[in-house]
Design goal:
homodimer, alpha+beta, 2 domains, 3-stranded antiparallel β-sheet, binds manganese (II) ion, binds zinc ion, DNA-binding
DNA sequence: GGTGAAAATGAAAATCGTTTTCATTTAGCT
DNA sequence: AGCTAAATGAAAACGATTTTCATTTTCACC
């Protein structure tokens, strides 16, 4: 346990949002100017490896790190302001567990995501009108 | 409408699996040796822009292109052999639509994914035992 | 069937987040 | 204190994606 690791872990777990390497790097950097980018990256990977967080990728090419909570949740992702809103996915997880069984899969993880536009972005306009609903 | 575009479109829509740029590039390349990578890339992007396909990213850093069908579906992704199995997501989409409304989101798309190990991979062994279930 | 503007193509280079390398430092143990 | 394995930081490597740009092609119009 090095001071860098402690700072990175502490900062990450104090955070509520989904943070990218760069974001966490800037945060710890404001406390310890000498910390390296790779150290932040490595420690985020470590946090994932030990099962305390999970990588999430939401369309833009940036990997974010999401603290694992006991209650499973999904993400509402606003295509306008890039905001992420979480929602409880208990019900869906039940369905998915059943689906996995039916297809002879063991499930190790889920990802449930809805892309759209939040109320604020709709109010501000600049939301294109095609309302295509689809699942990949 | 150029011959390259026609070949790329035709090849893409004849395909049933989730194809990456490289994969489609190799396929069209076997028919027209002179076709360029960027042309394949641009046309896949175009297919997405006009709403006939969707980009999907499944953990590995490779973007794949999934033809949009009228019936919404989710993906079972095998962490062992990387196979993708589709399943009907009608039921889940209903729940998600409701969730979006509750959170004042318009929904433009969904992504439902389950990671795990398929029967074959479990039979072959080499499946680590931790069965952590989680949703990002 | 020309003609010209706008769009598409292909090769190469640029981008940019991620990952690795390697020399140096540090933590943890005896 | 002395030793060894692990961690760190700076820089370079990587690799998929995206852009650039010179050239070619399509297509609407005459
Ligand atoms: Mn699919
Ligand atoms: Mn989350
Ligand atoms: Zn928004
Ligand atoms: Zn498998």
């Amino acid at each position: 346990m090095t001071p860098q690791r402690e700072l990175i872990f502490r900062s990450f777990f104090e955070m509520d949002k989904h943070v990218s390497v760069d974001e966490l790097y800037e945060i710890v950097r404001s406390i310890d100017r000498s910390i390296g980018y790779s150290t932040v990256w490595r420690n985020l990977k470590l946090i994932c490896r030990v099962g305390l967080a999970q990588e999430v990728s939401i369309g833009d090419g940036i990997t974010r790190y999401d603290r694992l909570t006991r209650i499973p949740h999904g993400h509402l992702f606003c295509l306008g302001c890039k905001k992420v809103v979480e929602f409880n996915a208990d019900q869906i997880v039940g369905v998915l567990a059943q689906t996995a069984i039916e297809n002879d899969f063991t499930n190790k993880g889920f990802k449930v995501e809805v892309q759209g536009f939040c109320g604020e972005c709709r109010a501000k306009g600049s939301v294109d009108s095609s309302e295509t609903e689809s699942v990949s």
